[in-house]
């Protein structure tokens, strides 16, 4: 019952995947700190500092904390008001041979900042894999409906026809840009490394008796042991908080993509043309039993808005860092960074769930086309009359009058669009009446939409997903299930 008596963030308790929630968990955070202390000790030993084999072995054997150690750390932190020193003390209790060398020469940001960079990189990797799956699913949808005509909208007013598949490529193109941006952010991440209290490495220079080469090698070695290819060449006590800005920017941009996509689906649901999945036992409204609310797409929009604003926190934090550091970044980043990734993770899972169960209603789509297409076909009808020997201006005036009469039927009387019947009943159009069916074929109004879909999938989507890392994720992917 205790978990029900205190506030829990819905991001972890209600929505997020186990993988992302674990990544930012206390257990993983403090486990990572211990690995970083181990890497520092190994590198210091290799470079000649007095670190015993026993110390290294005891540290390796106690990288994971048990419940008792969490309790000890909590007591220590309350006493010392310093989370890092509380965990240095706790680690030393289970690795007594290392107690004297844990954190040797380091500042708190050695573990806190380097661990954050590890989490950011791993979290970006998780998002990349999930985004690849979403792209794959929407690509299949675009291919399936590549040539199904549908009414296009500009200003949410009827416009020329497009296809259901072509519209999906507009979503896909933005998702591909998000894939590119997130990958760039991940691959660009460096390591803070071993830089000391103000970034000067003075403590390590003292440890190595003024040997600059050993200090530089220590930085390189710890960076390599921690799985990074490079460390930032200069830092203050922290890595620059502009790195957080660079990481959250593509997540915020993805939030805009997801919001736009989900909004389109909500509008399509209102039009009854395309709907998100709706389970047999799902309830759309507590009062109106007939309703099929697009709750998944609404959730995407809701969370995407939250995701889009979190970069503002990172921008504000980066702008107010004083000289070599100030602690007013700490509490903010503890909230902002995990929330950004948990939110993006949830949005991706929901998008995948939606993409795997979209329902298209071709007859509804065709009916809406039939209501609007006669007006759109008027130019084709005029051209056909001219080709048959008629006068363009006279044909234009005939169509104009009939169009207004048909519009009156639709707007004032609530009847169907009868423009084509009016054309058929007017002797003026006798020369082309045999062509009317062809002139009104929706597929003659979709231009190159099917071919654009084919080319886009072949030249942009499939190459983007051909990366071995993404192919591995696609191979392991299963159908997305929502927790709630």
TrEMBL record:
Organism superkingdom: Eukaryota
Gene Ontology cellular-component terms listed: cytosol
Entry keyword annotation includes Lyase: yes
Keyword Zinc: no
Entries under CDD domains matching the protein: Adenylsuccinate_lyase_2
InterPro entries the record matches: AdenyloSucc_lyase_C, Fumarate_lyase_CS, Fumarate_lyase_fam, Fumarate_lyase_N, L-Aspartase-like, Pur_lyase
Keywords, in A-Z order: Lyase, Purine biosynthesis
Catalytic activity, reaction form: (2S)-2-[5-amino-1-(5-phospho-beta-D-ribosyl)imidazole-4-carboxamido]succinate = 5-amino-1-(5-phospho-beta-D-ribosyl)imidazole-4-carboxamide + fumarate; N(6)-(1,2-dicarboxyethyl)-AMP = fumarate + AMP
Pathway in which the depicted protein is active: Purine metabolism; AMP biosynthesis via de novo pathway; AMP from IMP: step 2/2; Purine metabolism; IMP biosynthesis via de novo pathway; 5-amino-1-(5-phospho-D-ribosyl)imidazole-4-carboxamide from 5-amino-1-(5-phospho-D-ribosyl)imidazole-4-carboxylate: step 2/2
SUPFAM superfamilies: L-aspartase-like (SSF48557)
Quaternary context: Homotetramer. Residues from neighboring subunits contribute catalytic and substrate-binding residues to each active site.
Family to which the UniProt record says this protein belongs: Belongs to the lyase 1 family. Adenylosuccinate lyase subfamily.
Protein name, as recorded: Adenylosuccinate lyase
Organism field: Lentinus brumalis
């Amino acid at each position: 019952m205790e978990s029900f008596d205190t506030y829990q963030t819905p991001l972890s308790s209600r929505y997020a995947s186990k993988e992302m929630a674990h990544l930012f968990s206390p257990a993983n955070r403090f486990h990572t700190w211990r690995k970083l202390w181990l890497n520092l000790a190994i590198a210091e030993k290799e470079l000649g500092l007095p670190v015993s084999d026993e110390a290294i072995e005891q540290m390796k054997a106690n990288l994971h904390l048990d419940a008792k150690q969490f309790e000890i750390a909590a007591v220590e932190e309350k006493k010392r008001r310093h989370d890092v020193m509380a965990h240095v003390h706790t680690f030393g209790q289970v690795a007594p041979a290392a107690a004297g060398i844990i954190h040797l020469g380091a500042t708190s940001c050695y573990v806190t900042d380097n661990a954050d960079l590890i989490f950011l990189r791993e979290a970006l990797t998780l998002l990349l894999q999930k985004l690849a799956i979403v792209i794959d699913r929407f690509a299949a949808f675009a291919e399936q409906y590549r040539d199904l005509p549908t009414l296009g909208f500009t200003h949410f007013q009827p416009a020329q026809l497009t296809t259901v598949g072509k519209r999906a490529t507009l979503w896909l193109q933005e998702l591909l840009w998000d894939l590119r941006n997130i990958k760039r952010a991940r691959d660009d991440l460096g390591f803070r490394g071993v830089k000391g209290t103000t970034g000067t490495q003075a403590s390590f220079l003292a440890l190595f008796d003024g040997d600059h080469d050993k200090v530089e090698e220590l930085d390189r070695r710890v960076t390599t042991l921690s799985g990074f290819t490079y460390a930032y060449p200069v830092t203050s006590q922290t890595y620059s908080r502009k790195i957080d800005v660079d990481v959250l920017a593509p997540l915020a941009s993805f939030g805009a993509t997801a919001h736009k996509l989900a909004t389109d689906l909500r509008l399509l649901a209102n039009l009854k043309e395309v709907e998100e999945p709706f389970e047999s036992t799902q309830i759309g409204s507590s009062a109106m039993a007939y309703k099929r609310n697009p709750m998944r797409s609404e959730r995407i929009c809701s969370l995407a808005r939250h995701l889009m604003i979190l970069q503002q926190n990172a921008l504000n934090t980066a702008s107010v860092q004083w000289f070599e550091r100030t602690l007013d970044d700490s509490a903010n980043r503890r909230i902002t960074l995990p929330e950004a990734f948990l939110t993006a993770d949830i949005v991706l899972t929901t998008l995948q769930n939606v993409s795997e169960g979209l329902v298209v209603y071709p007859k509804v789509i065709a009916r809406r086309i039939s209501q609007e297409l006669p007006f759109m076909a008027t130019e084709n009808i005029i051209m056909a009359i001219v080709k048959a020997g008629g006068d363009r201006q006279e044909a234009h005036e005939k169509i104009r009058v009939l169009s207004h009469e048909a519009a009156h039927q639709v707007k004032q009387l609530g009847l169907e669009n009868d423009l084509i019947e009016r054309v058929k009943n007017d002797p003026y159009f006798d020369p082309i009446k045999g062509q009317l069916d062809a002139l009104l074929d929706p597929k003659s109004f979709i231009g190159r939409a099917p071919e654009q879909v084919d080319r886009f999938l072949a030249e942009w989507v499939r190459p983007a997903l051909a990366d071995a890392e993404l192919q591995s994720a696609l191979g392991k992917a299963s159908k997305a299930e929502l927790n709630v």
